[in-house]
Specification:
By secondary structure, the chain is mainly beta. The protein contains two helices and 18 strands. The strands form five sheets. The protein has a seven-stranded antiparallel β-sheet with strand order 10-17-11-14-15-16-18, with no helix packed on it. Strands 3, 6, 7, 8 and 9 form a five-stranded mixed β-sheet that branches. Strands 1-2 form a two-stranded antiparallel ribbon. It is globular. The model has no long low-confidence stretch (mean pLDDT about 95).
Length: about 280
């Protein structure tokens, strides 16, 4: 994976870059694809619940095996593929019994490599999947479960990794990408290695059109609106927002406000909070 810049033959090319990878191929297994209808940020009542979404290129959803529940059956990496639904690339596996599945591709996973998923201790190598109780402390992980058997929920995007700090009293201590240290049952499964395609965050999209292809619509600053439309609006010419802290369109505090509930049940599982900005 290489970030490539082209000659500035057009204004849109001048500041843009792309992530090129000659190893990626187009999807070959149609049974692992399904149609995906664009919701454009609307709920089942047709009301917009997430703003600035809509349009974009049509795409199929790739069915990803987050549970890795085919135990002790070797799987060969047939191909590495691009997935338009996520920042990470995906790996197409073919099991010894003929079954075919997609998984999140780890950093360093190669075509032709054989990997394994098991409920017991197996080799420590990228792509293998097993419970946390059998993984040595200090290992880098991805696609980690929060509840045993529920499927991977943590560290699934490009370049993410979780570090296993240790285990005690049936709980594993994990250091999250945010530097938060959290307790998780050691029966939860995890995949060894970090998520691949770490260069994804270095792409310069260059022009608004590329973002429209991704389904992202323009965002208007609140201070550029009228007072009736936003608390930051109004004033002659370009003016500051005129208040101590920024607010949302509906007048609630914005930018850096803590939204986690004080009495949330999982608070007891957090040993160290993530790093936060000082205001």
């Amino acid at each position: 994976m290489v970030i490539v810049k082209y000659k500035p033959t057009t204004p849109g090319r001048r500041l843009s870059s792309v992530n090129r990878n000659s190893d990626l191929v187009k999807p070959k297994q149609r049974s692992l694809l399904k149609s995906k209808k664009s919701s454009s940020g609307r709920n089942n009542q047709g009301k917009i619940t997430i703003r600035r979404r809509g349009g974009g290129a049509k795409r199929h959803y790739r069915i990803i095996d987050f549970k890795r529940d085919k135990f002790d059956i070797p799987a060969k990496v047939v191909a590495l593929e691009y997935d338009p639904n996520r920042s990470a690339n995906i790996a197409f596996l073919q099991y010894a019994d003929g079954d075919k599945r997609y998984i999140i591709a780890g950093q360093g996973l190669k075509v032709g490599q054989v990997i394994l998923s098991s409920n017991k201790k197996i080799d420590i190598k990228t792509g293998n999947n097993m419970p946390l109780e059998y993984i040595p402390a200090g290992q880098v992980l991805n696609s980690v479960e929060l509840i045993p058997g529920a499927g991977a929920k943590l560290a699934r995007s490009a370049g993410n990794e979780i570090i296993l700090m240790g285990r005690e009293k049936g709980m594993a201590q994990l250091k999250m990408p945010s530097s938060e240290i959290r307790l998780i049952p050691e029966g939860c499964r995890a995949t060894l290695g970090e998520v691949g395609n770490a260069e994804h965050g270095n792409i310069r999209w260059g022009k608004a059109g590329r973002m429209r292809h991704r389904g992202k619509r323009p965002q208007v600053r609140g201070k550029a609106m009228n007072p009736v439309d936003h608390p930051h609006g109004g004033g002659e010419g370009s003016q500051p927002i005129g208040m101590k802290h920024p607010k949302t369109k509906w007048g609630k505090p914005a930018l850096g406000v803590k939204t986690r509930k004080k009495n949330k049940a999982s608070n007891r599982l957090i040993l160290k909070r993530r790093k936060t900005k000082k205001r």
